[in-house]
Amino acid sequence: MSKKEQTNKEQSAPLSDNERLKKESHFLRGTIEQDLLNPVTGGFSADNFQLIRFHGMYQQDDRDIRAERQKQKLEPLHNVMLRARMPGGVITPKQWLGIDTFATEHTLYGSIRLTTRQTFQFHGVLKPNIKEMHKALNKMGIDSIATAGDVNRNVLCTSNPFESKLHQEAYEWAKKISEHLLPKTRAYAEIWLDGEKIEGHQDEEPILGPEYLPRKFKTTVAIPPQNDVDVHANDLNFVAIAQEGTLVGFNVLVGGGLAMTYGDLSTYPRKADEFGFIPLEKTLDVAAAVVGTQRDWGNRSNRKNAKTKYTLDRVGVDVFKKEVEKRAGILFEPIRPYVFSMRGDRIGWSSGIDGKHHLTLFIENGRLLDYPDKPIKTGMAHIAMIHQGDFRMTANQNIIVAGVPFSEISKIEAIARKYGLMDEKISPLRKNSMACVSFPTCPLAMAEAERFLPAFVTEVEEILTKYALENESIILRVTGCPNGCARAMLAEIGLVGKGVSRYNLYLGGNKEGTRVPKIFKENITDKEILNEIDTLVARWAKERHPEEGFGDFVIRVGVVAEVKISKRDFYA
Ligand code: SRM
Ligand code: SF4
CA separation (Å) from 395 to 20, 94, 251, 415? Predict the structure, then answer.
């Protein structure tokens, strides 16, 4: 089918039900306020179940106890997960103490979860506490607008306080882009903050449109050589170009995304395309133009094919790019040279060029809670009580205690050590591993991820040690389903949940995050995966070229074929 025929077919197909609900929602209000007052159920009904997402919340229940409650003829223990909006992941110690108190006192799990998109989530907030939560966050200067739903999500920014000035400039842009692309409706303020309902006020959405976007939309600001934000997982990326340490503009990359659906070959992970360089003053225009083009051209009939990556493949990269140029009133200049060479966080102390010190703490899978032998959540709160700088949540689910003066280093380090937040014994492999939330809260989980990964890493560590490779790192990521929340589709070894205790094994991503891996074995158990890894690591130890990464090795020796263009090669 030609591109034109495909577009016509999509345009004549019936719209998805999400389009109706957005249109009828009265700018995201629905009947959420009425639902909040309904004591009969702990959940939200009909359209409101979806609409609360645009306000940064998901309705969930604990899947570990679902069957038991059903047996007792109880409705699932409905609660919401809240995801905050934190462009660039920056949070102050005062805000940290506020969220720590809320998590301890008002959530079912008592945890704070650092996500792969540089923010935190509360899990297990019961209906009577939801409004209080929003008011408490608002008092601290935090909101959760547009962290979910068909809008531009939390804007990421490289967590790199090392190049202090450049980072600050890039971070300011991440904030500006986030604000510029936010929904303008007053619904959030009215519903959650008892904002005044202004008579005759007409909401307008000049950028997102009254029906919002066809699907979720993700944006980053990246500072090479770091690709910690994983640009190829995102719809729109601004790659910082600096001259003598000062930001002069951005290379713009469009159309990345990682999710797929098993059995549906029209879905696939896709890398972003390079559109070109723009000067700084065009940043917001280009952001709005890319969002606007996707808003108008994205598929509103089939949500599985609705993201920007599919729009690009349907209409053609050049056609999409020309439309962006037209809307933004620019011509992209040729891409300026840039190189990505790393993705991990620098765990431990580093010093910025401004003389400040930064301590990156490794938080395994972003799960901050008090473990019996490691009360890390309490430890973080103790650091927040004395820290004068700020904290930066990273896109690898870690956190940086940033801007520490020399005189405070020993005090901060003493607390971090006391509460198990610092540990030199953590292997390079573990530092480069990541899992999504999955069970028990994620309704889409097919296999364990976050609860499975720590012990699995220990087994892979043993394999590396067996072949004297314990100082090597492999980017190892696990997701509980093919949606890809821990970005396994950019890992050297990616495990993707297929069923209870079964995974598909993908190999061949690279250290830089510029290659999608390919399936190696389907629907196998963890023991079978370990056997495969053992065999491959043995070969890697023997046959690798100097410094050759595991992902590069498996491609060079033909274990899996390289995915060059994912639409073409991923399923080939
Ligand atoms: Fe995700 C849905 C958790 C990053 C692709 N993701 C979900 C939900 C909300 C399940 C649901 O729809 O009910 C999960 C909630 C689990 C829970 O209990 O918390 C969930 N996603 C997460 C987080 C918390 C994983 C983590 O361990 O950190 C990350 C939150 C990021 C944030 O702060 O905004 C998270 N999700 C991602 C990423 C990675 C990224 O953005 O860098 C991806 C892959 C990149 C991409 O978008 O292509 C991702 N999540 C998805 C998808 C597939 C979207 C698609 O294109 O089809 C879904 C399902 C959906 O949207 O229908 C999803
Ligand atoms: Fe849930 Fe799947 Fe995302 Fe994991 S990858 S958090 S299982 S949606």
Answer: 34, 22, 20, 24
CATH topology of domain 3-195+208-328: Sulfite Reductase Hemoprotein; domain 1 (3.30.413)
| Cis ω for the linkage preceding 428 (within 30 of 0) | no
Atom 3 of ligand 2: nearest residue by CA position: 485
* Residue owning the nearest CA to atom 2 of ligand 2: 481
Decide whether any atom of ligand 1 lies within 6 Å of the 439 Cβ.
no
Quick one: tokens of 441? 């809260």
Q: What is the pLDDT of residue 12?
A: 75
pLDDT of residue 177 exceeding 90, the answer is yes
Mutate to test the pocket of ligand 2, among 481, 496, 506 (most ligand atoms within 8 A of CB): 481
Least confident among 7-21, 139-153, 483-497: 7-21
Q: CA-to-CA distance for 32 and 45, rounded, in angstroms?
A: 9
Cβ of residue 115 lying under 6 Å from some atom of ligand 2: no
Asked if residues 43 and 203 have their Cβ atoms less than 8 Å apart, the reply is no
Q: Does domain 429-569 have CATH number 3.30.413.10?
A: yes
Write out the H or E segment, with its range, that includes residue 80. strand 79-83
